[in-house]
Amino acid sequence: MEQDAYREAGVDIDLEAAAVKSLISELTYRRKGEFSMASEIGHFAGFVSFGKYVLAMAVDGVGTKMLVADALQNWSTVGIDCIAMNVNDLYVMNLEPIAFVDYIATSKLSHDQMKQIGKGLNEGAKLANLSILGGETATLKGLVTGLDLAGACLGIQEKEKVIAGSAIVPGDIMVGIPSSGIHSNGLTLARRMVEQHGSYDERLQSGETLGESLLKPTRIYADVLRICEETEVHGMCHITGGGLLNLNRLGEFGYIFDSPLPPQEIYTWIAQTGGISEQEMYRTFNMGMGYVIIMPQEGVNTVKKYYPDAQVVGKIERSPGISLNGKKLF
Question: Comparing 282 with 1, which gets the higher pLDDT?
């Protein structure tokens, strides 16, 4: 398969980035008076001034992972994904999530489906220590096929404790924390591989089925808040859609990965089955690393105290670009 497998499957990352820029270019109005905007559009989360604090907001959804849940008739964990994709985008700026609202758009309501989704949302809220304040459910037959699950999250932090990447300097090291698997990005391509070349019941060498692997819930990185309290952190990144390209949100540096975390078995299966290049895999998926902390070397032991499976994966250099095992990817 060609390098642009994700685009052929229906998602064009470059087109998406250009389209988002077009949207953002029109968002010029800023609130006047108190509680003004205190961030630029384009980071993982946006926030407003609130006295000595900032209030932050993030929004995200589960995406086409819902179609995997539909295929397996198991919606019990997608609520965790919905919470995780939002709170992880707050954690990267050392923002503490405190409240959440969900949005469900569906062509047809199902009591069992909604109960299972509620179960996952509640578990995600527990893992992230936040309250679900409410939400909106819309039956949109003719506009929506199936069910789409999304949400928005409110976070808070003292202004002086916000981490946006401005403290990153060449010589910092990168500590990678493993993902639980594919999380909630790249599922359009992953599903295409399964549906064209296998089945959700097909088993990997580990014994896990492809369906089980794809549906594994997104890891929630709540303990990074404790790490930021105990040691110096210069920047953090949630590896989501766009893979390693997400690091560019932190600034133009050289992100040199010389000891990357090993990808889970599902990634090997996708790459080999589809003949997908290493570069495209790392710009589509998290490839086994769901979160990166950029910090001085002295902080590594603090990270490992909370995440024993974390490891130093690379370093920061001055010349911009993202390299993997000596090969420049982007």
Answer: 282
